[in-house]
Amino acid sequence: MQSKLNRRNFVKAAALTGVALSVAPSLLAHGNASYKVDKAWKLHTDPNYPVGSITGVAVGKDGRVYVAGGEGENEPILIFDAKGKFLKAFGKGTIAGKHEVKIIDGSLWATDTGGHQVHEFTLDGELIRSFGVADEPDEDETHFNKPTDIAIAKDGSIFISDGYGNRRIVKLDQDGKFITAWGMKGDFDGDFMNPHNIEVDENNRVYVADRENHRIQVFDTEGNFITKWTNTGRVFGLTLAPHNQILATEGSADQMRLLIMDRNSGKIIQSIGSKGSLQGQFDLPHSVVMASNGDIYVGETTNKRVQKFVLK
Question: Which residues pair with 282 in a beta bridge?
């Protein structure tokens, strides 16, 4: 008989995997565990910083929620506390086109599709460094063309999905020096139509959400193709999970959902949600992350909101 996995057991199980949830947020489908939307939680926005399409969401160890969702010419990155109360905003003048945000090793990383850069900030919004040349899209060792996401391997290597323009994956060393790149526009193995999100796990497997090819591709850290999963539909967001699982968000025209998948086989373990605007439904779930306590946050572009999911 399977025992139900509650929140306390979730945290214990996550610790046993050796995966730091603050670095690799995750959704766990193990035994009879399942999630429900927290209907009482929402972002309490500030009228001076209106929220538009939400393209990225990240959560710090202190529970603060970072949202790439500033509307129009306003500050692109918004910070909320764990209860959804607005705290501050930043990024205007640095980020020309908000996309994904991630917290890795105590820094907030943001991809900038408008300025063709990737930025590293402190968690209070101070710029640390930027990769790429501002406002100069290109495809070489120092330029990007609308980069979409970033991941960092255990050895410090940086992987950037480069993205809407170049359709490639770029690998840099920890100092930002170019190492290699792979991929081109196409639908063969190793090609991309839109490498939209990227993750690297503890076994040095690189997972790429190849959005317009409706698949997830898996590589080693040198860019060698390992396998592909074609059961995801139009996949937007990715994040790693304990128990060798990975979370993906699907935004197909007729199907919007959150997927929990096995990292070895690509098998879908659990599907959550449907297309719509009600709580627990999605309309373009663009980004997903999990807090260290196991809560999941999904950012949506069309519904212009972040939803929080908790273990039942």
Answer: 275
91 φ/ψ angles, rounded to the nearest 5 degrees:
110, -15
User: Tokens at residue 292, please?
Assistant: 């260290």
- Tens digits of residue pLDDT in 35-57: 899 999 999 999 999 999 999 99
Which residue type is seen at 277? Answer: S
Q: CA neighbours within 13 Å on the CB side: how many for 45?
A: 17
Domains and CATH numbers, the chain: 7-311 (2.120.10.30)
The contacts of residue 150 (CB under 8 Å, 6+ apart) are: 100, 102, 104, 109, 111, 118, 158, 159, 160, 161, 198
Residues contacting residue 287 through CB under 8 Å, at least 6 positions apart: 54, 55, 56, 57, 68, 100, 101, 197, 236, 237, 249, 298, 299
Q: How confident is the model at residue 223 (pLDDT cuts 50, 70, 90)?
A: very high
Per-residue confidence at 7, pLDDT binned at 50, 70, 90?
Answer: very low
Q: Give the integer Cα–Cα distance in Å for 220 and 37.
A: 35
